[in-house]
Write a structure and sequence with these properties.
about 350 residues; Rossmann fold; 2 domains; 4-stranded parallel β-sheet; about 40% helix; binds 6-O-phosphono-beta-D-fructofuranose; Pyrophosphate--fructose 6-phosphate 1-phosphotransferase; ATP_PFK_prok-type; transferase
Length: about 350
Amino acid sequence: MKVGVLTGGGDCPGLNAVIRAVVRKGVQEYGYDFTGFRDGWRGPLEGDTVPLDIPAVRGILPRGGTVLGSSRTNPLQQQGGIRRIKENLAALGVDALITIGGEDTLGVATRLADEYGVPCVGVPKTIDNDLSATDYTFGFDTAVGIATEAIDRLHTTAESHMRVLVVEVMGRHAGWIALHSGLAGGANVILIPEQRFDVEQVCSWVTSRFRASYAPIVVVAEGAVPKDGDMVLKDESLDSYGHVRLSGVGEWLAKQIEKRTGKEARTTVLGHVQRGGTPSAFDRWLATRFGLHAIDCVRDGDFGKMVALRGTDIVRVPIAEATARLKTVDPARYEEVGVFFG
Ligand code: F6P
């Protein structure tokens, strides 16, 4: 049995832990051979491979990023893409494909498995934690930890200057990172894409915080949008997923706060710092368990399935369950933290 492995989409701390677990168990317990595909779906599409064996995965557990490289190449958008993948897998003697990715990578895996009979197993990853069918994705805990540490640091500088500090975190469609890091870091306002925000309300929370002699911290997810739609976007373009990319909400909000409250405000955009570097212990634990269960799916011939975390158990679900809709923050979860605002 020869197993191909690829990592697609934005990178995420914990990808290497999955690769290591898959290879270690696959070689040591089942005697499988492996082929690594470079740069997500580009690898099988172009037959671009990298050797994947025990020595290749030595020492990679604590390393961020992915030793296989990643890309947003989508074979479904390319003429003859599926045919080329099937031909390359056959030529390389690859019997099964473990695809580690988010909604786009897994969306391709679902269609390849369900419609074209390519034996794919899915492993969910994203720092955004917005994939359905799994309680958590690895990478999220690391991102929340980084954002929380940043918020802790921003509190002291905000207080020294009695300024408002706006922290923009990742999350185009879901506010999980904003919600968890904002709560853990003691933010005074948390704004998420799921709930349009009222700038006046934000300013009144900010003002009441100053009245209590504290400098406010506002955490805003990059995808958060104001209610009245009066936001002037610095840049509106399509990102490499083809999604509309709205940038600059943190910067825009800080300006609005200054204008409306008369208080000085600064913005910190955490950006890709949230995605880089070593994974947290939780993410290594989750990614490793996902890897161990993914190779078992291959052993069982259980294709078209994705491994997922339910409580503390790893289960198998149809990949399509994860990609059918995004897992967003429900209003009750958001309301729960409102008591800390202001
Ligand atoms: O999907 C993960 C994510 O980190 C989002 O939170 C963010 O908007 C996006 O990727 C950034 O993508 P890129 O690395 O292509 O700029």
